């Protein structure tokens, strides 16, 4: 495209955004052309709005635009009120989509906390807003990252049916580094971590603090901060120190915890945070103060001495069902689904992918799923080259009807990615198959309700 053509394209997009601002404002929503976040190509026009439910959303439209849209579901979840900065950061981190020519819309979600269906509704509303203002894209890809992958899966299940005109809202779904076991299974290991950590360290809560059942996460009104919890964990285990600087007692305690609950050392504190404040959100705001977690009947590596000290809790069946109804994928996604996951993901274990495959199989949708794995040890971002290749494989799938194989994707990565990310690396492992989640997280029965996904 010529320089003049680029300028005309930018001008046209700017006029669309100004028109969108006026139209949406008339509907009780606000959207204004806004400088793009850092890292977005300079030819991109951005808008920031706030929808009728209170969610902020960012839109980025590059010039030239390939007439295809990525609807982004972000991870987390954040526990506070919605903040426009969150989606701005997502646009920056995922600027590969605008660099490829996609428009992007990203919602903050209108409420914080572990509320998957609510977030899915926000995601779908952001797509509808984009279409109302800019028309129907040629293709719409739903992208979910981390916890947002679970949100995206639920979005596709709840809102993915064809409309009266025969249009599918989403042509395909891309799930990266996904927390895909649903609330029924994805959080069990953090319950394990809470009881094992307390059995070993005894300082969360301390003996001089009011006791509470650990499944509560933290009592309402408790003043404990994340920095204070990190100090406690470090004092007990030395986890923030080099191994050589730890005392023998710290080394032993840390080893006991990590052997019993298979979390990486580098994310021990983060998982304890989630098992504290996210559990507090779940119990106080989602399950009406009732326990959805169990440690009953679970045997932890570490021998009889450790297991005798473990706090045993039985889950409430209504709380389990409430959480599952909100957050558990059903697998009934009516369009192609491609997942990508690092095999050493320290936050969302790769074994969750085996659970998601069984979910899709039970829904009769196994042929609509392709899973990719990479030789990475990160969670938040893998490499531009791998995302480009995954997206191109997904587009080819929906346009030609040919299901890609992991081998084909891996072989195409160096060529496909050259235009956008020649130096970022292709690390696909086409032969890799994840073990079952039960190989890492002990299976359990919750108030008489078995968890077949974990078997």
Q: Could you characterize the architecture of this molecule?
A:
The structure is a single chain. This protein is α/β, with parallel strands linked by helices. It folds into 2 domains: 3-182 and 336-439, Alpha/Beta hydrolase fold, catalytic domain (Rossmann fold), CATH 3.40.50; 184-325, no CATH class. It contains 15 helices and 11 strands. The protein has helices spanning 3-26, 84-93, 95-99, 116-134, 147-159, 182-186, 188-201, 226-237, 248-260, 268-286, 303-309, 317-327, 352-362, 384-400, 406-417; strands at 30-33, 45-50, 56-61, 68-73, 103-107, 139-145, 172-176, 337-342, 369-374, 445-446, 449-450. The strands form 2 sheets. The chain has a 9-stranded mixed β-sheet, sandwiched between helices. Strands 10-11 form a two-stranded antiparallel ribbon. The longest helix is centred in the first third of the chain and has 24 residues, at 3-26. The relative contact order is 0.11.
